[in-house]
Amino acid sequence: MKINNPYNTLAEHHCFGCSIRNPIGLKLTFELEGEQVKTSWNPSKNYQGFEDIVHGGIISTLMDEVAAWAIQLLLKTSGVTSELNVKYLRPLRVSKGTVDVSAEINSVEGKLAHVKTVIKDSDDVICAEGLITYFIFPEGVAQKKFRYPGINVFLGSK
After folding, report:
1. Does the pTM exceed 0.85?
2. Is residue 50 helix, strand or coil?
3. Which of 44, 47, 78, 99 could form a disulfide with 146 if both were Cys (CB 3.0 to 4.6 A apart)?
4. Is residue 10 situated within a structural domain?
């Protein structure tokens, strides 16, 4: 199921990961498939470190962004990154084209949510895995401080 990005209606929304207004951003869009949030992205040479290899910071950014959307869609709130651990397993090659990134909630312990993320290349090979811990807020706080609009807005219903 394709997810709406309600933040794109806010003039000040310039998120590097998901804003349509950020000229150098990733412009990610998301889908909800069961208990996973997914996105695809086609890297260019602008995002490489060594020749033909996506920069590790971009890889961690992709993971952090899809994990944030997992918090919003699966836990129905908002949060902030507390810890991010990435295992770089193989080079993620620019020349291989579109990469797939997925996130799922691993566990929730009080105000901490642990999100598992995976990046696969176009050959469906896992190139990186991440475990990201988010400090999550009660929905009311998320609405006030982070403009969390509620789950129905993401899903296209009222």
Report:
1. yes
2. coil
3. 78
4. yes
Distance CA 83, CA 81 (A): 6
Residue-level pLDDT, tens digit, the chain, 158 residues:
999 999 999 999 999 999 999 999 999 999 999 999 999 999 999 999 999 999 999 999 999 999 999 999 999 999 999 999 999 999 999 999 999 999 999 999 999 999 999 999 999 999 999 999 999 999 999 999 999 999 999 998 65
Count of structural domains within the chain: 1
Determine the residue type at 129.
E
Q: Which domain holds residue 23?
A: 6-148
Residue 49: CATH number of its domain: 3.10.129.10
